C-alpha cells in the first residue's frame, strides 16, 4: 500500500523538523545548520567550532499490511510482522545511486544515511510534523550496512516501527536500524573528537571527499555554481554585512550542497555542538 504523502514532503519535513527540534531539544543535542535558499544559512553558523557533515538520501517506503507479503509468507523473516515498511533501493542496472552512497560513506564514516519514515498515514505525518518530530519517527540505514546489491533485480529493506533490525531482500541480509537518538549520540562523540578543528576545516574535508565522486561535468561546473551562489547572496538582504570569513566558508558549503544534491542525490546538513565548551582548543 502506498503512503498518502510524498517523498518530497517527507524529505522537507525531516530536514525542517530536525532543525526546528534542535533549537529546543536536549542541551546535549547538536545544532544542525541547514543550507537554504542558496543565499544564507538557516541557522547561525559557528566558524570557530567543529562541524560534522551529514548526508541523507530520503526514501518513501510502501506499507505492507497483508501476511501474504513475501517477507513473511515465503521468507519468514524473524521479528517482522504486519504492518511493516518496505523501502525500495534503486536498481543497480538503472542507477549507481547505492554504489555512490557506499563510496561516500567510505569517505565519511557514520555520516551517510538512508532515511525512511515509520509513519503509516498522512494524519500521523501531519501530527508528527506539527510537533517537529518527523525525524524522530524515521528509520536510518547505513548504505555500507545494507551492503552491495547482488544483482540487477529489485531489492528493498523491510523494517517495522518497533524493530532494531531490518532485512535487505530479496536475498535476506540483516541490517541494523538506527534511530535518531543513536545518531545524536554518535554525533556528540564525533564532535568531541573533532574539537581541534573548525568549520573551515570541515568545509575543506567535504570538498576533498566528494569531488572525486562527482561526474566530470559537475566538477567542471563548480566555478559556475559558485558564481551563481555569490550573485544570489549579493542580492540577499544583509549579505553585504557578512564577515568575509563567514562568507567564504558558507559559500564553500553551499557549493558542495548543490553539487552533491545534483550529482549524488543526497541532502547535506552540518552538525555543530550546542555547548560552546566543545569549541575550545585542547591545550
Structural account:
The strands form three sheets. Strands 4-5-8-9-10 form a five-stranded antiparallel sheet, with no helix packed on it. A hairpin with a 3-residue loop joins strand 9 (165-169) and strand 10 (173-176). The protein starts with 6 loop residues before the first helix and ends in a 12-residue tail after the last strand. Helix 9 crosses helix 10. The protein has 283 residues and is of the alpha+beta class. The chain has helices spanning 7-22, 70-73, 97-107, 122-130, 143-146, 180-193, 199-210, 216-220, 222-235, 244-263, and strands at residues 35-36, 40-41, 52-58, 62-64, 84-89, 112-117, 138-141, 155-159, 165-169, 173-176, 267-271. Mean pLDDT is 88; it is low at 36-42 and 278-283. It is built from ten helices and eleven strands. The radius of gyration is 20 Å and the shape is globular. It folds into two domains: 7-29 and 54-183, no CATH class; 41-51 and 197-275, no CATH class.
Q: What is the string of SSEs from the N terminus onward? A: HEEEEHEHEHEHEEEHHHHHE
Summed up, the domain count is 2
Q: Characterize the main sheet.
A: 5 strands, antiparallel
Q: What's the arrangement of strands in the largest beta sheet?
A: 4-5-8-9-10
The whole-angstrom Rg is 20 Å
Instruction: Count helical runs.
Output: 10
Mean pLDDT: 88
Oligomer: single chain
**Structural class computed from helices and strand pairing:** alpha+beta
| Relative helix content | 25-40%
Number of strands: 11
Per the principal axes of the C-alpha atoms, what is the gross shape?
globular
Low-confidence stretches: 36-42, 278-283
- The percentage of residues in β strands lies in 15-25%
Q: Kindly, what is the distance between the CA atoms of the first and last residues, rounded to a whole number of angstroms? A: 57 Å
Amino acid at each position: 500500500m502506498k503512503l498518502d504523502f510524498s517523498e518530497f514532503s517527507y524529505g522537507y519535513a525531516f530536514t525542517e523538523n530536525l532543525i526546528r527540534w534542535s533549537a529546543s531539544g536536549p542541551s546535549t543535542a547538536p545544532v544542525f545548520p541547514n543550507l537554504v535558499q542558496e543565499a544564507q544559512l538557516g541557522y547561525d553558523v559557528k566558524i570557530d567550532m567543529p562541524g560534522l557533515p551529514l548526508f541523507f538520501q530520503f526514501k518513501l517506503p510502501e506499507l505492507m499490511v497483508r501476511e501474504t507479503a513475501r517477507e513473511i509468507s515465503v521468507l519468514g523473516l524473524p521479528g517482522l510482522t504486519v504492518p511493516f515498511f518496505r523501502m525500495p533501493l534503486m536498481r543497480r542496472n538503472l542507477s549507481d545511486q547505492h554504489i555512490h552512497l557506499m563510496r561516500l560513506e567510505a569517505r565519511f564514516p557514520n555520516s551517510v544515511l538512508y532515511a525512511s519514515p515509520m509513519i503509516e498515514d498522512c494524519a500521523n505525518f501531519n501530527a508528527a510534523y506539527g510537533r517537529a518530530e518527523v525525524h524522530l519517527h524515521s528509520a536510518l540505514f547505513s548504505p555500507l550496512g545494507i551492503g552491495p546489491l547482488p544483482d540487477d533485480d529489485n531489492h528493498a529493506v523491510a523494517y517495522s516501527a518497533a524493530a532494531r533490525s531490518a532485512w535487505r531482500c530479496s536475498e535476506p541480509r540483516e541490517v541494523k536500524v538506527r534511530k535518531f537518538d543513536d545518531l545524536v549520540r554518535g554525533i556528540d562523540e564525533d564532535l568531541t573528537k573533532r574539537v581541534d578543528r573548525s568549520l573551515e576545516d570541515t568545509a575543506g574535508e567535504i570538498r576533498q571527499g566528494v569531488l572525486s565522486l562527482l561526474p566530470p561535468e559537475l566538477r567542471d561546473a563548480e566555478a559556475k555554481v559558485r558564481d551563481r551562489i555569490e550573485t544570489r547572496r549579493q542580492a540577499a538582504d544583509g549579505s553585504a554585512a557578512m564577515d568575509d570569513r563567514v562568507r567564504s566558508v558558507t559559500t564553500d558549503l553551499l557549493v558542495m550542497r548543490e553539487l552533491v544534491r545534483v550529482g549524488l542525490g543526497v541532502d547535506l546538513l552540518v552538525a555543530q555542538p550546542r555547548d560552546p565548551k566543545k569549541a575550545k582548543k585542547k591545550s
